[in-house]
Amino acid sequence: MASALVLLTVYFGESSSGGLHGVQRGVMTVLSPIQEGASRALKPVRDLAGWVGDTFRAKGDVQDLRRENAALRRQAISGTDAVRQNQELRKLLALDQAVGLAAAAPVAARVIGQSPTVWYSRIFIDKGTGAGIRVGQPVVTGDGLIGQVTTAAANSAVVTLVTDPEIAVPARTSTTGVPGVIQVAAAGSDDLLLDYTTRRDRLERGMNIVTAGTMSTSDRLLSAYPPGIPIGRVTRVEDPGTDSQKVHVRPFADLRRLEIVQVLTQRVNGNRP
Description:
alpha+beta; Thrombin, subunit H; six-stranded antiparallel β-barrel
C-alpha cells in the first residue's frame, strides 16, 4: 500500500517525459491493439445483447398497445351500442306519444333470440308473465307493429311476427281509411298483403297502412291491436280496380334487426278508435 502511494506521488510529481509516464506509454502501446481486437470481437455479442433487449422492450410496447387498443375498441363498441339503443328508445317514445300508447301500459323488452328454423318469423324476448306479458298482446318497435305474443313464460316470451302466416291484422290506409287485413304474401318473406279490398277501394303505391283497431261494437270481436299503429307502406298494386287486386305492403320495421321492443299489455276501450 505504501509502495503504491509512493509511485502515485512520484507519477503525479514528475513531468510528462518522466520514467513512469514512459512506462505508461509503453504499456498502452502494447495493450491498445489487444483492446481494439477484443472490442471488435465482442461487438457482435454487444449488438446481439442490445437487439435482444430492444426486441423484448418492443414486444412489451406492442402488447401494451394491443391492450390499450382492445380497451378502446370495447369502449367504442359499447358507446355505439348505447347510441343505437338510445335511438330505439327515443323512437319508441315518439310512437307512444304519436299514437297514444302510454295508456296501453307498454313493457319494454330486449330481443334475446330468433328462431333458427322459421325464417325470422319468431323472436324471443327477456320479459314474460312476471312483467304482465300475456299471449295475444301486440308488440311494436319505434317503427311500428311487428307482431304479437304467442307464448309467455315467467321471464321470457315468444313473439310471432307479422311475416308468419298465422298472424292476421285488421288494418286500413292511414289517409283514406280503406279497410283490409294484413297477412304475409308468402311464408319466408317480408312481403305483406292488404287482403279483402274491393274494386271500389282506391289504393296506390306509397300509401301508409296502419292498424284499424276494433271496428265491431260487440265485445266478442275485440281486436288485439290498438288503432293507428304504423304497419308498412304500399309498394305496388296488382290488378288495380278489380276485386282480385293484390296490394303489396312492406313493413316499416326491419324484422331481421330487432333489439328493443314494446309489448302493449292493456287494452284501452277495447282497442276501439
